[in-house]
Write a structure and sequence with these properties.
This protein is of the alpha+beta class. The chain folds into four domains: about 170 residues, no CATH class; about 90 residues, PAS domain (Beta-Lactamase, 2-Layer Sandwich); about 70 residues, Helix Hairpins (Orthogonal Bundle); about 140 residues, 2-Layer Sandwich (Heat Shock Protein 90). Helix content is about 55%, strand content about 15%. The protein is built from 14 helices and twelve strands. A five-stranded antiparallel beta sheet has the order 2-1-5-4-3. Strands 7-9-10-12-11 form a five-stranded mixed beta sheet. Strand 1 and strand 2 form a beta hairpin. Helix 4 packs antiparallel against helix 5 and helix 4 packs parallel to helix 6. The two termini are about 65 Å apart. Its EC number is 2.7.13.3.
């Protein structure tokens, strides 16, 4: 047989969800109300005031019923404290209405004043029970009022005039049931809507928290005392701090506090960029006043402008490369003619020493100009990286051996590797170009200071990230602190014969292979560190 979708009267959907906090609260009030009524009735019969106040129809039944009502409600209050079973709730309401109806009859009917207790019990029962079960309780209560009034009229002629009041009270039972059920439905709809809104707000709050955590822009919230109330992970990274909350801003970054004070004095003035620590990125701060709970907080945004500057440099170099590619032919022909003429002039026998020196200057600068054109052309038409799985330990031994064969006898390339295989993914030709450039720079600076060039290659695995790391260090004069910020900028050089593109090209080649080239502060020379990608990382 096909199953029916109609719900039975005892279906849980017909109830007010007593398992919820609201339902349990109503159930506790229902127990408390019945205990209060039972205590009042017991006090009435123990003091014998019921004989004086009420025209009793059956005093003995009233006395026994009052004690039974109190005792039973005490037991039910303990046993059914947190019940959510429909049959138990319906039985509780049915017991309450039945016993109150018996007390109503024993007390003499309508004149006893116990009928409103039935109306109140019906109302409370309908706040727990919904639909047909609630109306059934109201029907039983109103039927009891009318039938017991009729039964009393058989033995008491005065009860004959009480049918209208009994009917009105019965109607009031139905009215109370319908009103309470309507209010209950509206309250339940409001609670459902409130829970839905609360869930939406919680989801939105979680989404906002996730966005704040994933944002590359640093965000700080400062109170009027300049204490950090909120800091996302990006702000901690940009400022080089592991913990920012609940501390004052000047303890973390005095330069940012100075920019904030300048903004407070003149909000229309754009704050200057800053660098939180020596090796940190260049940051552009911006400030926004924030009203929260009657206090004026400050919202701080920190933008990493080093990436923007790098993109601008790349665009500039791309444009320069296209320009150079277009005019390379026009430049190289005159440049070749100048260089060839200078070579012929240098071979003349009657050329004086000063003129020979001038000729050599022409040749040197011709070669330098040709090298600049070659480097810029290389940037403009640089091929895509073709990463391969490399065993760096084996590859470096081979690279160092080939390099030693091409170097002068007074140059030394020292290699130190950890035991075991260290793998990464990188284009071997581009790695050769990067290391050749870095090693040649190190040998040149070392030989300038000591007369003999020495370079150390140290291959190891980073203890924190487990990524392969190669350090190239020398014992030269090192790099002055005021030049570190421009170290990887194109065309920046401190040598007369340099082009300023070697370190820039090396970093670009590293980034195209998912590696990173950085300068590491070191006493007694310079040190450059290449952090390679994980061998399973796709380039």
């Amino acid at each position: 047989m096909p199953t029916s979708n109609r719900t039975t009267p005892l279906d849980r959907a017909d109830f007010w969800s007593p398992s919820t906090e609201q339902g349990q609260r109503i159930l506790r009030l229902y127990h408390l109300y019945r205990l209060s009524v039972g205590l009042a009735l017991v006090l009435l019969v123990t003091s014998n005031m019921h004989r004086e106040l009420l025209d009793m129809a059956d005093p003995q039944l009233f006395r026994i019923g009052s004690w039974a009502y109190l005792a039973t409600n005490v037991v039910l209050g303990v046993l059914l404290q947190q019940t959510n079973r429909p049959l138990q709730l319906f039985g509780l309401a049915l017991f309450d209405v039945s016993l109150l109806s018996a007390l109503f009859y024993a007390a003499g009917g309508i004149p006893s004043g116990l009928a409103p207790l039935l109306v109140i019990s019906v109302a409370i029962a309908n706040s727990i029970l919904r639909g047909r079960l609630g109306l059934l309780i109201a029907a039983l209560a109103s039927s009891g009022l009318i039938y017991l009034t009729f039964y009393l009229s058989l033995s008491r002629s005065a009860a004959t005039a009480q049918y209208v009041q009994a009917g009105a009270l019965g109607t009031l039972c139905f009215a109370a049931a319908l009103i309470i059920q309507a209010l209950g439905r509206r309250l339940q709809q409001s609670e459902t809507l409130a829970r839905r809104h609360a869930a939406d707000v919680a989801d939105l709050q979680a989404l906002n928290a996730l966005i704040l955590q994933r944002m590359r822009t640093g965000i700080l919230v400062l109170d009027p005392q300049l204490r950090v109330l909120l800091a996302n992970p990006s702000s901690q990274t940009l400022l080089g701090q592991s913990q920012l909350a609940t501390q004052r801003l000047d303890a973390h970054c005095p330069a940012l506090l100075e920019r904030l004070q300048q903004w407070q004095e003149n909000p229309a003035l754009r704050p200057q960029s800053l660098q939180a620590f020596a090796e940190g990125p260049v940051l552009q701060p911006s400030f926004v006043p924030l009203r929260r709970k009657g206090e004026r907080d400050i919202l701080v945004f920190l933008e990493d402008v080093s990436q923007i500057a790098q993109q601008a440099q790349q665009l500039k170099l791309a444009s320069l490369g296209r320009l150079t590619a277009g005019i390379a032919h026009e430049i190289r022909n005159p440049l070749g003619a100048i260089s060839h003429a200078a070579q012929l002039l240098q071979e003349a026998e009657d050329l004086s020493a000063p003129d020979r020196r001038l000729t050599q200057i022409i040749l040197d600068h011709s070669r330098r100009m040709n090298l600049v054109v070659e480097n810029v052309l290389q940037l403009s038409r640089r091929r895509q990286a073709e990463p391969q799985l490399l065993d760096l330990r084996y590859w470096l031994h081979r690279f160092a051996g080939e390099l030693r064969e091409t170097q002068r006898g007074d140059s030394a390339v020292n290699l130190q590797c950890v035991s075991g295989s260290i793998q990464t993914r990188m284009d071997p030709q581009q790695l050769t170009q990067i290391l050749t450039n870095l090693v040649q720079n190190g040998l040149r600076h070392s030989a300038r200071k000591h007369g003999k060039g020495q370079v150390w290659l140290h291959l190891f695995r980073d203890s924190a990230t487990q990524l392969p790391v190669l350090e190239i260090s020398d014992d030269g004069d090192g790099i002055p602190a005021d030049q570190l910020g421009n170290l990887f900028e194109p065309f920046f050089t401190t040598e007369n014969k340099g082009t300023g593109l070697g370190l820039y090209i090396s970093r670009e080649l590293c980034e195209s292979n998912r590696a990173r080239l950085d300068h590491v502060p070191r006493e007694g020379g310079a040190c450059f560190r290449i952090t390679f990608a994980h061998p399973k990382t796709a380039s």
